[in-house]
Structures are given as structure tokens and as C-alpha cells.
Amino acid sequence: MFDYLPLTFHITEGVNSKEFERFSNMFNDPDSSPDIVRHPQCGKEVWIVKPGENTNRGCGINVCRDLSHIKGICANNQHNGKKRTYIIQKYIERPLLYKNRKFDIRCFIMTTTVNNNLQAYWY
Fold first, then answer.
1. In a domain? residue 105
2. Which of 33, 75, 95, 117 has its CA 20 to 30 A from that of 5?
3. Residue 36 above 60 pLDDT?
4. Residue 99 pLDDT
5. Euclidean distance between the first and final Cα of the chain, in Å?
6. 31 within domain boundaries
7. What's the total number of domains in the chain?
8. Model confidence pLDDT, tens digit, residues 93-119
């Protein structure tokens, strides 16, 4: 169903880090990298930039198409006096959709053993 996992960079030291340099090189010349897989009908480079720690529910996620926008986001590596890191991911060009909307599936499982009987509960 899925051809690949999204290309991901973890920026820990802002725009001067080696990982951001690696991302910039790949952004500027995507054809030189075998890591970027494109669907034949899609060609637009879309990237997601999100905080790398303590995130949930989509807070702080930015969708970007140009390097200057991404650089501007990653340049801010302090938040409330704490160091901030960023995750940059290539957006999936053909996401799995339900009625033209993205979705997620959340399942919870609990297993217990009582008197050597294994029981599992799925929610």
C-alpha cells in the first residue's frame, strides 16, 4: 500500500547544524538523492515542519514549500527559555484518504493474566 516512509530530518541545533545542512542540500537538489521518492503524477515538494518534543494534536505544525520559510521556522531554537528542536518531513504526496480527508486509527490493548489465563481487551 505504501511505497516508502517519509524522509525525515531531526534538527537539534537550528539552521547551523549538520542535519539542517544535509536537509538544505537535499532540498536544493532533490534529484541527487535516492531517498526522495516521487509519484509520477506529483512533483511539488511539500514539507512538514513540527516541534521535535512535547507535541500533540497538531500544535505547531507548518506546511512549507520553500527553504526560506523552513529556515525561518528552524532559526527559532528557543521556546520559553528551553532549547527547541524540529522535525522536518517530506509530505506524503499521495496520502491514504477517507472521503477526501486524512484520518488516523487509534487502538488500545490491555493484556492481563489471572490464574494463568491470558486475557486481552481491545478498544
1. no
2. 75
3. no
4. 83
5. 25
6. yes
7. 1
8. 777 778 877 777 889 999 999 899 999
Domain that holds residue 78: 8-97
pLDDT at 108: 93
DSSP readout, 20-86? HHHHHHHHH-GGG-TT----TT-----EEEEESSS--TTTT-EEESSHHHHHHHHT--EETTEE--E
**For residues 6 and 100, what is the distance between their CA atoms, to the nearest angstrom?**
20
Q: Give this prediction's pTM.
A: 0.65
Q: What is the DSSP string of 8-24?
A: EEEESSGGGSHHHHHHH
- Tell whether 123 is covered by a domain: no
pLDDT band of residue 19 (cuts 50, 70, 90) is very high
Q: What does the alpha-carbon distance between residue 82 and residue 85 come to, in Å, rounded to a whole number?
A: 10
- Quick check: 3 and 94 in contact, CB under 8 A? no
Q: With respect to residue 1, please indicate whether it lies within any of the assigned structural domains.
A: no
> Do the beta carbons of residue 62 and residue 50 sit within 8 Å?
yes
State the virtual CA torsion across 24, 28, 32, 35 in degrees, nearest 10.
Answer: 50
Share of the chain above pLDDT 90, in %: 24
